[in-house]
Each structure stands twice: as structure tokens, then as C-alpha cells.
Amino acid sequence: MAATPAPVLIAGGGPVGITAGLLLARFGVPSVVLEAQPAHAPVGSRAICMQRDALDVLARVGCAAPIVAEGVTWTLGRTYYRETELLQITFPERGRSAFPPFVNIPQSSTERRLWARAADEPLVALRTGHRVVGLEQDDAGVTVRVSTAGGIEDIFGSHLLACDGARSTVRKLLVLGFEGHSYDDQFLIADIRTDLGFAAERRFFFDPAWNPGRQVLVHPQPDSVWRIDWQVPGDFDLERERASGALDQRVRAVVGDRPYEVVWVSAYRFHQRLAPTFRAGRVLLAGDAAHLMSPFGARGLNSGIHDAENAAWKLAFVRRGWAGDALLASYDTERRAAARENLRVTGETMRFLVPRDAEEARRRRAVLERALTDPAARRLVDSGRLAEPFWYLDSPLTTPWGDPDAFPREPGVARPVVPGVLCPDGPCAVPARPDVVRLRQLFGSGFVVLAPTTADVANLEAACRAAVRAPVDVYALEAIDQLGGLASALETGRRTAYVVRPDGHLAARLDGPDPRALTLSLRRAVGDPGGLPDGP
Ligand SMILES: Cc1cc2nc3c(=O)[nH]c(=O)nc-3n(C[C@H](O)[C@H](O)[C@H](O)COP(=O)(O)OP(=O)(O)OC[C@H]3O[C@@H](n4cnc5c(N)ncnc54)[C@H](O)[C@@H]3O)c2cc1C
Q1: What is the domain class of 404-525 according to CATH?
Q2: Which atom of ligand 1 lies nearest, measured to the CA of 104?
């Protein structure tokens, strides 16, 4: 009888850990989630803004539809200075996504959906009350020591994915630092049930009469709950505020004399921190265990979900013998680059929101005053640049195309369709698969090659089989693009072909359906530009 394969171990059953387990299951890879808490009982709303491309990942594990159905969809952000609206944020899109730019839902609801899905997935074993306290690794795998109610236990796996949050035990056991800084000011975050009379949109107020000198952010959530987020001084004491009635006055200043109920309230200090590497041998770090950033921009969980996806396909490829060590190494290269970009963007936002000295405060006030009349100054007003997927332009897996210096790197700009970016979505039809109505439904289990015409398919399929062990599906764009939307979303030329990775990022854009160019780009995309990966 064949031995049962060792599972991938996942430390932490937060949203990133569970997403990773579900994604591994899609590749037939078993995992064991080790969660320290005795039961999964998430509290509070924390990450409320789910970005459309992160929802797409959740769609692959069967969780997006209920999240969208329960959540509040919004498409517009408004920013005010005192009583005057300064600017509006909208979200550019190439192609046609299945999801709105953002859906607001409490993190606790997202987690409940993920846990329910994982409980139904035979390849994901959920172990609550299992706190990771030690680990050892060698060429054969990783042995994780856990503390449980019954005592200490050792559990063996092929790899360990550390999703154990900001205070990650795994990161500490690996003696990895968490360099960065923390902010002095705190943020008071309350979920208030009331009828505010606002539209379902993000509203950010600089220096409103009801929080002079600081800012307030208001976000809609389901069931008439509003997230209200006040910047408060470093010595703010929530219990004192509650006891003195100051919290009630603060809420009243926003809701007026409408009835309200406090659903959840907490005060946070925000941090900008990054682990020096996201990989140590057979251990990968993901989510808050790897990076921690201010939530203005909603980049924490959204990027953690992309970490989970990046780690899952690479771990699965290595486990299945479709790729070697270089593919795992690319997890660190790609996801740490993404985290650095998120930290750069959120760091700039925090400099604007929480000036570090009198000079920065003076500059901020000048920008806000000028923005009342000068559209150029409005571009400098930074109330949070919202989450977007990273681009793996410089990744060793990406076949370069075009001039990387011409690539627009500022936040919130539609990216050109070049290798490294996430492939746009759009309506599509595959005769043999009536369930498929949009392009991204074809992604997630192997590579996809989009050939220009049906006549190119057989030739390219043969090249794929000779190039890599991983599964590759080849589709003719002319056959699946029945409405013409894909060609325009992909900005495709008549003979252009694309190689798409399992996570939907473009690995290559080929100027013709050339089998040799396809072979080279596929080998590069599994981390092995020189030859075939070693067998299992
Ligand atoms: C106020 C606030 C608002 C936010 N808003 C947003 C937003 O709008 N959008 C967004 O994208 N992000 C937002 N974030 C960030 C988001 O909440 C985090 O990025 C997200 O929770 C990270 O998920 P995770 O799974 O990596 O870690 P966690 O959610 O921290 O989960 C870690 C899990 O590991 C478990 N664990 C810990 N130690 C061990 C151990 N030794 N052994 C086993 N298990 C262990 C914990 O019990 C926990 O279940 C916000 C954060 C805050 C604080």
C-alpha cells in the first residue's frame, strides 16, 4: 500500500492560513492547520475591505459568492477637508471583473466562511488548541512541536507555512527579525449600528469639526453597521474614554441624535514591519507573520491572500515533482517585493496622516488648504491608496517584454498588459466547459496558454508537454473570446500568445505562437530556465 504523503503544515488558522490550505487542496495536496486558539471564534471587524482580485482568489476556493452576497459593495471614495469635498477615488479596470472594486464585510464573517469551507474539505485537517512552540527541519521535511491540552506533540510535514500573525512564533523560532517601526498615535476603531444616511461609499474627513486637527474615516458594513475610525493621541485610554462618557460624545458628534449601538470597539497602534526573508528552507512566511502595515489602503489581508496563493501553487508544484527548489525561492523574491511596495505606499499615507514633526504638519496643512482650489494639490492629498495586486515585472519567473521603465508604478493606475501583471478578466466561453463564463475561471490549477488561433493549438500543446511536467491547458483566443472583450482587455495583436501562471499572473507575452519561445518561457516560469525539473 502506498504511504500517505506528509501534509503541508500551516501554523495559524487566520484568513491567510485557511485560504492557503484550501488552495493546496485544489492541487490535491493535504494540509494540517495548527491553530493555537481552542476554538475558532473570531472577534471584531478588522479587515473589512476586500479587494476584487483577492475576492477572485477566494472564488477559487468557493468563498467569494457568499462574501459578496453578505457584504456591502462600494465603488467610490470621497475625501473631505473640514466640510468641503476635495476629491473622489474611483478604481480603474482593464477587462471586466466578476467582482466590484471593493466589498466591505467584517473579517470575522470572512473567516467564518473560510472555516466552514475548510471543515468540508477532506484534504484540510483543522487542529484547534494546537499552539506551535518549536520546529526542526532537515532534507526530509519539517517537524513542528505543538502544545495542546493533552500535552506536547510532534507533527511531521513536508513544509511549513507560517501564517501565525504579527507576533509569529515561527518567525521567532527561525530567529528572524521584524524590522520597521510603530506609530505613536493610536486609532480608535468602532463598529456602530445606526442609520447614518450616507451612501455605500468610503468617506474620509481631514480635520472635521468633530475631531479637530486629526482625521476620521467612515466605512459602510452590512446590517447598518458603520466602521468609524478616529485618529487619537498616543496616550488615549479606551476604558477611561468609555467610563467618562467621552466615547458617547465622540460617536454622537458623527451620528447626531440618531439612535446607535456600539457593536465593537478597540484602539490600535499601527506598525510598518517586514521580515528579512519570507523563506527559510522548507518554511515560508505569509500574511501578518511576514509583513505588517497600517490598514489605510486595506493592503494587509488583501496582500496576505495573494501570499497564500503564491505559496500554494509553488508548494504544490514542488510537492508534485513539477518544479524544483528555485520555484520556492521565487516565493520570497516575489512576495517580499510586493510587501515592500505595500509598505512604501502605506508608509507615505501614514506620513501624510500622522506628520512626524512640525514641518511635515505645516506641509500637510498647506496641501489641504491649497487643495480647496487647486486640482494639482489634490493629487498630493493621501487618505490611503487602496489595495491592488502587485506586478512581478522583475521576477525570475517572468519573461521580460517591453521597457520596464515605462511601466506606471504609482498606486491606483491601470497597469499595461505586460508579463508580471495579473491577467485581466472578461467574458469567455469554452465549448467543452459550460461552467466557464469568464477567463479567470480557467486559471488556478496549472499553466494556461492563450494561443491566437485554433490552428496553433496542437503545435503549442506538444511544445508544452516537452517543456514542463506541470499541467498546461492551451486555448485559442479566437475560439473562447466569443464577444471580443478578451482581445481588447488583453490589448492583443493578431498573433500574440500569452502564458498565464496558476495565480493568474502573466508569465510571458509572445509576439507569435512560437513553440521555442513558449518552451523557454514555461521553463522560466517554473524557475528552471535551463532544463527540465528533476523528477519526483
Ligand atoms: C483595525 C484593523 C483594520 C484592518 N483593516 C484591513 C482591511 O480593511 N483590509 C485588509 O486587507 N487588511 C486589514 N487589516 C489587516 C488584517 O486584519 C490582517 O492583515 C489579517 O488579519 C492577517 O491575517 P493572518 O491570517 O496573516 O493573521 P491573523 O489574522 O493574525 O491570524 C493568525 C492566526 O494564527 C494563530 N496563532 C498565533 N500564534 C500561533 C501559534 N504559535 N501556533 C498556532 N497558531 C497561532 C492566531 O490565533 C490566529 O488565528 C486590518 C487590521 C486592523 C488591526
Answers
A1: alpha beta
A2: 8
